[in-house]
Amino acid sequence: MDGIADEDEERRYRTDPLNDDTDGDGVIDGWEITYGYDPLNGTDDALRALCEWYESNETADQSIEAQCNSNDNDGDDREENREITQEDCERRNGTWVETSDRSREPYCDFGENDRDDRDEDREITQEDCERRNGTWAEAPDRPREFYCDFGDRDSEEESRFRYSNITLHIFHGENLENSTVNYTIKIQLNHSAAPIHADNFLKHVLYGNFNNSIFHRIIDDFMIQGGDFQNSSGAGGYAADWYGICNGTRIANQSDCPNQENWNIPDEADNGLRHLPCTISMAKTAEPNTGGSQFFLIPGDITHHNWLDGIHTVFGEVTEGCEHITSLSEVETGEMNRPVVTVVIFSATVDN
Predict the structure, then answer these.
(1) Can you tell me the distance from the alpha carbon of 334 to that of 339, in angstroms, rounded to the nearest whole number?
(2) Do both 245 and 170 map to the same domain?
(3) Closest to 68 measured CA to CA, from 57, 56, 82, 54
(4) Is the CB of residue 265 less than 8 Å from the CB of residue 196?
(5) Element (H, E) at 126
(6) Which residue among 16, 24, 219, 262 is least enclosed by CB atoms within 10 Å?
(7) Cβ(13)–Cβ(28) below 8 Å
């Protein structure tokens, strides 16, 4: 950028008639005109330039900070808290941390404002990239920032990382041999909208935790609930990995919560997914961040459980066999909505 605005200029921009944002790119028209950007072009680099200006100008309006910390200003599909260096992170009072499943890729944690909306080719390590026959490439617009280039296979590979497919094999009966009916249900997990929930559920499946577990709670015209592989009652279950939550409370270090039975996952209920027919959602207590392994499937004969939206996290949809969920939601139940005849997941497998 050429030049830095002084305090008088900044004050004028906040009261100027050109304080409108005509092109909707998050930068006021007066600022764009002053620094040579087109106020009618919402696809230029004005927002990125504004954030660079903010970083180098101590007198800048602090309201810009949240926008620059949370948006993808350079258009490379990475949240800005993944762009910055460790030095910048600590200067902005962030915490430089490593994720549990990507220990070699640190990022800056801004707490409640931290989201991860990056393209999956920016998530994986160089080792994973090369194992999938990708090319570890340096981004032309961001020196020293590497990503995995799948070439002509970009859209195919990206889709594989954004979604994973699970198959549940279910029987209704005292045991598999004497069951009255067997069902196959396929679920697509949405790693883009609910990355932590999808990852957690996928790992439970990979670890075999759901095999021979039951649906302990079934309510007609509502849902079928399972996933308590620990107690089979609705009182148990925990996260498949460490996601920074211990007994519903955010904890910085896993060492402060050594017992995995106390591990939970953070809510992602504001991801835009709704409790519509044939969806899967995370069960939890009335307190935030208390999900672990229990989940519920919504049958196909309802309209919309809108009172659950924004509280429980939807993290996927049923792509095949939703009619079986509807049938199972109508089985006879007894005390605590427990099926009189057991409904069992005798195996859960990953399809891709």
Answers:
(1) 6
(2) yes
(3) 54
(4) yes
(5) helix 126-131
(6) 24
(7) yes
Tokens of 317: 């949809």
The model's pTM is 0.58
* Structural domain range at position 329: 159-350
Domain identity same for 40 and 146? no
Residue 60's φ and ψ, nearest 5 degrees, are -65, 150
Q: Are the C-beta atoms of 70 and 64 separated by less than 8 Å?
A: no
Determine phi and psi for 218, rounding to 5 degrees.
-135, 130
Considering the domain architecture, whether residues 180 and 329 belong to the same structural domain is answered as yes
**Residue in this structure with the two tokens 């392994």, named with its chain if needed:** 293
For residue 320, with 0-12 CB atoms within 10 Å meaning exposed, 13-18 middle and 19 or more buried, which class applies?
middle
Q: Which tokens go with 226? A: 């399972």
Quote the pLDDT of residue 326: 97
Structure tokens belonging to residue 301 = 């004969």
AA identity, residue 251? I
Q: What is the pLDDT of residues 290-330, one digit of tens each?
A: 999 999 999 999 988 999 999 999 999 999 999 999 999 99
Say yes or no: 314 and 217 in one domain. yes
| Contact by Cβ (8 Å): 19, 31 | no
DSSP codes of every residue in 212-276: TEEEEEEETTTEEEE--TTTSSSS----SS--SEETTEE-S-GGG---GGGEEB---TTSS----
185 and 149 in one domain?
no
For residue 293, give both structure tokens.
Answer: 């392994």
CB hemisphere CA count around 127 (13 angstroms): 4
For residue 85, with 0-12 CB atoms within 10 Å meaning exposed, 13-18 middle and 19 or more buried, which class applies?
exposed
Per-residue pLDDT band for 162 (boundaries 50, 70, 90) equals confident
* Distant-in-sequence, close-in-space partners of 197: CB < 8 Å, separation ≥ 6: 189, 265, 268, 282, 291, 313, 315
Q: Which two tokens stand for residue 55?
A: 């970083």
Q: What is the pLDDT of residue 40?
A: 75
Question: Burial code of 132-143, b = ≥16 C-beta within 10 A, e = fewer?
Answer: eebeeeeeeeee
In contact, 319 and 291? CB cutoff 8 Å: no
State the residue for tokens 């990507």.
102
Confidence of residue 115 (pLDDT cuts 50, 70, 90): very low
